Here is the input.
Amino acid sequence: MFSRSLWALSAFSALAFGAPLTRRQATVCNGHAELCDRLYSNVTYIGAHDSFAFSSDPLALARDQTVDVPTQLSLGVRLLQGQAHTGSDGVLHFCHTSCALFDGGTVADYLGNVKTFLDANPNEVLTLLFTNPEGADVSTVWKPIFDAAGISDLAYVPPSIPVNQSSWPTLGDMISSGKRVVVFLDAGADGANPVPFILPEFQMIWETPFSVTDASFPCSIDRINGPLPSEEHMYMINHSLNINIIPIGDGVIVSDPADAPTTNGVDSILANANGCVPLGANRNPNFVLLDFVDQGDAFTAADQLHGLASS
Ligand SMILES: *[C@@H]1O[C@H](CO)[C@@H](O)[C@H](O)[C@H]1NC(C)=O
Ligand SMILES: *[C@@H]1O[C@H](CO)[C@@H](O)[C@H](O)[C@H]1NC(C)=O
Ligand SMILES: CC(=O)N[C@H]1CO[C@H](CO)[C@@H](O)[C@@H]1O
Here is the structure.
């Protein structure tokens, strides 16, 4: 009895004093044990293009998604893309081209939804890739919104920028350290007052062209920045097929929902990925950016790119 309680006491003190020193090591990362040891840069994430621009109304031509952000995340989306504009209320919104055309609400509300997901899913690494066409200031406009949403503390801060292919942490390390959100901005992140967790996208990611209307998705490097060579970048395929609804002059290009089941199917995604592998230092794409991500079979394609059986 005595020795038993002594044992219990020592077990208790090991828990109380020892446990905080050893971090809980993640055993399942983004849904798969196999991904825990992979570098962040060696994983393929399915992304939702214009994630905020969701509508179930087929007449909403400016929509690029059918289901809302929490549903996208529950399906397995791990890259959320959004385009920020200042609304008429003076705060940052996610809007498609302009807030008059499609207003997806404030960035603050959006990030609140993201935080709810992160809290409920502690073993998930998530990437946020936002565009900043109006050049909103990172330290005075963007950072306070991330701070208020409680996401800044979860954001990964690299030891130095840019991060090359081999210098990203593993998913397991990101989850164990709690720094499991990676934030990229396409413009304005490398100005005079940078924010350590808001990373300049094109120094670390290159993209294929956008507004593609060719269903064979020929691969090329479109947007990229130095100083790292392209093979030290991660890369994103903009895998959404557009149609020109007014084929006069420059036309009017909108995303084509009727084609989404095919475009987001395994064959189309793998063909696009394979076409890019030679440009991507023989690596698979890191990010597959899709419209209407609830359609097709993108998550099976990602499993295949990871060499995993379908989950
Ligand atoms: C990526 O992960 C796979 C599977 O673990 C591994 O075989 C490959 O060597 C890794 N690639 C790099 C560049 O680390
Ligand atoms: C990648 O970055 C690390 C750390 O900055 C550096 O030690 C390494 O030499 C770099 N590798 C390449 C291939 O540039
Ligand atoms: C058509 C398409 O998906 N285009 C997008 C490609 O990705 C960039 C985001 O980084 C967007 O700006 C484009 O709209």
